[in-house]
């Protein structure tokens, strides 16, 4: 077998692509790893494509990586917005090898004092998807939220999916266009 062909060593809950439905992939299921980006794995089985979270990397024979984030703060003690953008650049649509920031999917990012608990900050993100029917939207938004919550000082995060304005390819960054072969 090639290094991308594997058999799962244990059962894992995976997200089916593109529906976004959760399914259990059982131990000994043969998978082919298509993409490893942002700490998650896009794999193909006999029944289709799935996304496996990085916390389950051991089932693929890979090392589980625990991410820690070093982040600067602003003068008022809030997390540096650049740290949030950096975390969002680690979030990928499992079918596209470009992060959600370079795809132009993130429309806004706001940092405010968290209401509860009394200490910490809340990050609000408005983002879209490449297509309104994409079932992976909730999984991508949850991945973004989890990555934001790794930032020291952030105690709450809300990632909201919006459809206005409608996304189009002109929103992709130059770097993203290069990765996709559009320029």
Report on the structure:
- 15% of the residues lie in helices and 30% in strands.
- The chain has 183 residues and is of the alpha+beta class.
- It has 2 domains: 5-60, SH3 type barrels (Roll); 81-180, Fe-S cluster assembly (FSCA) (GMP Synthetase, Chain A, domain 3), CATH 3.30.300.
- The radius of gyration is 17 Å and the shape is globular.
- The mean pLDDT is 90.
Specify the number of helices. Answer: 3
What's the number of extended β-strand segments? 9
Query: From the 3D coordinates, which CATH architecture of the largest domain would you assign?
Result: 2-Layer Sandwich
Strand content: 25-35%
CATH class of the largest domain: Alpha Beta
> Which bin fits the share of residues in helices?
10-25%
Order of helices and strands: EEEEEEHEEHEH
Number of domains: 2
Layout of helices and strands:
Layout: E1 5-7, E2 12-17, E3 22-25, E4 30-37, E5 40-45, E6 48-52, H1 81-88, E7 106-113, E8 121-127, H2 137-148, E9 154-161, H3 174-180
Parallel strand pairs: 8-9
Antiparallel strand pairs: 1-4, 2-3, 2-6, 4-5, 5-6, 7-8
Labels describing this entry:
183 residues, SH3 type barrels, 2 domains, six-stranded antiparallel β-sheet, single chain, 30% strand, alpha+beta, GMP Synthetase, Chain A, domain 3, three-stranded mixed β-sheet
């Amino acid at each position: 077998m090639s290094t991308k062909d594997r058999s799962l060593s244990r059962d894992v809950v995976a997200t089916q692509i593109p529906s976004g439905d959760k399914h259990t992939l059982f131990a000994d299921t043969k998978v082919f790893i298509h993409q490893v980006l942002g700490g998650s794995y896009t794999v193909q089985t006999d029944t289709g494509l799935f996304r496996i979270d990085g916390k389950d990397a051991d089932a693929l024979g890979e090392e589980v990586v625990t991410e820690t984030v070093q982040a600067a703060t602003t003068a008022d003690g809030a997390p540096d917005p650049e740290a949030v953008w950096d975390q969002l650049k680690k979030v990928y649509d499992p079918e596209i090898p470009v992060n959600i920031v370079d795809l132009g999917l993130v429309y806004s990012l706001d940092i405010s004092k968290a209401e509860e608990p009394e200490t910490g900050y809340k990050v609000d993100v408005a983002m879209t998807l490449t297509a309104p029917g994409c079932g992976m939207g909730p999984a991508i938004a949850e991945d973004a939220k989890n990555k934001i919550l790794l930032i020291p000082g952030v105690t709450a995060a809300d990632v909201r999916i919006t459809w206005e304005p409608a996304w189009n390819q002109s929103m992709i960054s130059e770097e993203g266009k290069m990765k996709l072969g559009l320029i």
